[in-house]
Amino acid sequence: MSDKTYDVSQVRSYLQGLQTRIADALGALDGTPFGVDAWQRPAGERLRGGGITRILENGALLERGGVGFSDVAGEQLPPSATALRPHLAGRGFEAMGVSLVMHPRNPYCPTAHMNVRMLAATKEGEAPVFWFGGGMDLTPYYGFEEDAVHFHGVCRDALAPFGAELYPRFKRWCDDYFFLKHRNETRGVGGIFFDDFDELGFERSFAMVRSVGDAFVNAYLPLLEKRRATPYGQRERDFQGYRRGRYVEFNLVYDRGTLFGLQSGGRTESILMSMPPVANWRYDWQPEPGSPEARLYGDFLKPRDWLV
């Protein structure tokens, strides 16, 4: 959508503030502040701009947590950005967003991902064509129905002011997107996902994105507080590492944000901060029937309406 009210400065200001609020909240819960790594693309490269990576590793609660803000521009949209908009191929672009992944140490605490972003296709003499994307999803290693219900309830409430149809629509989109086709399983219990979104106009679409970004702390932190003291042993850690392998597979094979960053020449260290610190793979492994690990597969790793 071309929109003369497009104002990149208000998007940038919101995203920078969101990054700070989320990193500060999670750092306070962990008891360890997130470090700050500001970066800038070297002059003369095909990608211009920079960003800030907020990172925490080896914390008391978070084995790794990263909250990244990036604001970059280039001369040509990468293929991942024009897959659904081939008529924009060859345009320049500006992309900015906040992307985070939290990998707790305790296997009973779920991993969470959230991303909100805006991309504008630019062409000299024409108004920018903008769209938004983002969402959040939850990846438990040991499933709790009440946790999934809480997470989805917060997602639904964040979208409700913008149309009752958005939550079921974005929930289905999330289930379809975070699906490992080669494993025939979902990555977790889902949440919401949307991309190439501009149908509400710039101001209203941006307001929806703000509502989603602002909801993350309420969706996720109560789950960490509830599960962080649950006792666990090596069995649970081994299973956590095995399931984290699925996270790696999805991010490297399917994730549009990862592909966009790598295809556009982005900063690899910041792009791959979403990877878990420890993961493992086992050949043709199956959980024991009736075990908590088997219950994850049977009850949680398939699309399901959590709010009935």
Automatic annotation (TrEMBL):
Ranges where the record places region Important for dimerization: 247-282
UniProt record, GO biological process: protoporphyrinogen IX biosynthetic process
SUPFAM superfamilies: Coproporphyrinogen III oxidase
Residues holding a divalent metal cation: 103, 113, 152, 182
PROSITE patterns: COPROGEN_OXIDASE
Catalytic-site annotation from UniProt: 113 (proton donor)
GO cellular component: cytoplasm
EC number: 1.3.3.3
Subcellular location: Cytoplasm
Primary residence: cytoplasm
Molecular-function annotations in GO: coproporphyrinogen oxidase activity; metal ion binding; protein homodimerization activity
Catalysed transformations (reactions): coproporphyrinogen III + O2 + 2 H(+) = protoporphyrinogen IX + 2 CO2 + 2 H2O
UniProt pathway: Porphyrin-containing compound metabolism; protoporphyrin-IX biosynthesis; protoporphyrinogen-IX from coproporphyrinogen-III (O2 route): step 1/1
Protein name per UniProt: Oxygen-dependent coproporphyrinogen-III oxidase
Name of the coding gene: hemF
